[in-house]
User: Fold these one by one.
Assistant:
Number 1:
Amino acid sequence: TDNVLVTLENSNAASLTQTSTDGSFAFDIILNQNYTLTPERDDDLLNGVSTYDLVLLGRHLLEVERLDSPYKVIAADINKSNHISTIDLVELRKLILGIYTELPDNDSWRFVDASYNFTSANPASENFNEFHTINTLNQDMMNLDFIGVKVGDVNGNAAANSLLGAESRTTNGS
């Protein structure tokens, strides 16, 4: 996605940059240091969010039709409680009705380390990284990828990039 604020920090300093339209970003760094790379985006709350997402979340809660992707489950965890419940349904409804101008317990986007493999029936409860730790950085890192998850967008139709139509996107880092 574009418009993602990416922070690169170590024990001495922190640098910020914004991703480009293709999701890439770059930092000037000092080699042989340890770094933490963290993406953040908290805007456009209703991007991809509709009453259809309420329907899908309700069907999941009633076990009529389970969400078929760990990223959909993470998107459905509106209050970031690490599980999906009727509270998430209420919170999503408040978002759609305009009662919320921001999510009280979550950002509008979450970023999952693309190399993470989900292993449980409840992906929202897993301890997946929303950052990369880089030990002794000594070369360009072109494959630090994240998968952007739009909170509330259970059917996955958010426009992740302001210049492109709705599609799944990842953030490529260097």
Number 2:
Amino acid sequence: NGSAWASTAAAGGGAWNFISSGTASASSSIDFTTNIDSTYDVYMFYFVDFEFSADCSPRVRVGAGSFDSGSTDYQYAYGGNHAPAAVHAACSGGAAFMGFGEGTWQDGSSGGSATIRIMLYAPSDTTHKKNLEYTISGQSSNGYALHGEGVGQRVATSAITRLQLYPSTGTITS
């Protein structure tokens, strides 16, 4: 249980290079604050079997020096589904985070966990807004299998040097 992240190589056949890992235990967030720079064009963050202390929605913030948390710093669009055939969708044209659908993920005490993959593109580019793609799978708050995909965008064009994953309520227990 925890997380790891890697990045594609800028050249040399597209190999993935492991950069760092972290572990969360009763943590309000898991933060990656080093090694995000101009070395690679794409960074992948992979969070395996994350458990939350309460039913919640995972959220992401990015920034440089600190995490951006202003009420209009991000835009995101999310779509997902779970058995038996319910569809979730969420979007925001101005938010303080990038969301994975609100209030839909089950806490670990009920056997729920989530696996999350986040792709961050061109973090050092200062000409364009920053795009992230994410995929999440796990259990919904009613206990059904749930899968979702989304895209998030940091509205500012400044470079990104850090990424944070946190629950909308409670903590990351493992």
Number 3:
Amino acid sequence: PSSLINLDFSSTTVPGFTLPSNLGTSNLQLQQLTISGCTTLTDITQLPPTLLGLYAGGCTALTNSSLPASFPNSLQSLNLSQINTIDTIPSLAKTSITQLDIYDMTTLIKIPVLPTTIQNIQAQNSADTLPYALNGFMDTDLSATCLQTLAIYNDPGITSLPKLPNTLTQIQMQ
């Protein structure tokens, strides 16, 4: 139904599980899609343009080709944590992302340039790739950035960070 705004398939492990085929249609007003722990889900290429939050942490069957070429412009929160079959995150530049969770993505090697709306980044074990994204992010107009929290855990490879925006209020490195 077009009135559906929240869809939660958390921890669905049914063999061959797929998302509804009409999920990417523009008449659906879906705002939140939670598929965390769906270990058999292999495709999320068709996302609705109204999506604000995508929570796909632990969807271990997802790969680079099973992600959309770009995320919806409306997207504000993205969690791809604990997926070790993805090495590149698709474009986020045109999104409204404020929260990015990429912890325990041990195969991640590339994060695209982040939009100026980013407020919180949480990374763990994938943190050695984070400076690439931050360098691109820091090349944007710093007066327009909103980054407030940067949390990087369990990474011995980070020795320095790029110039950070004035909006940053918390850095956690452990």
Number 4:
Amino acid sequence: ATQVWNYMKSLGWSDAVCAGIMGNIMAEVGGQTLNINPYSSSSSYYGMCQWSKRYYPQIIGGSLEDQCDFLRDTIRKEINTYGSNYASGMNYEKFLQLDDPQDVALCFAKAYERCGSGSYGVRQSNAVKAYQYFVYHKGDVLNLTPIIPYEIIMVILCLTISLFYSRQNQKIGR
């Protein structure tokens, strides 16, 4: 992910643009993490952006640098052609001016990836993670939501067991 980020930054793209694109790459080949596998392949798709093998056969088997070059070489046309999927009048120049990683992620998803709408939120969340990591050098935010109910249940269970044994001890005179 760092190599891709540095490549995009070398093109003069803003942190927000890089994070928005990275959020999509994380969804495509990173399992929602920055541990991306740019060589991921299926019978129909290849690479960090999961390009269609049917429409983009020239990228099949491409190195990470080849893929970054391919992204650079195709993004202007794709955003100019399909930018209206995101907003009326959206083009490449306006895309580069977006300053919120979540907006960039959504625009890239709709205009470049043209993926299903069910993944938009994940891509936007990934973009925020990438932005925090690369701009603020912060890792993933710890998600305590699934832990808190478990902790509460365990405390109640322990107190209940303690009360039970305390009463049992009283019965036998301990």
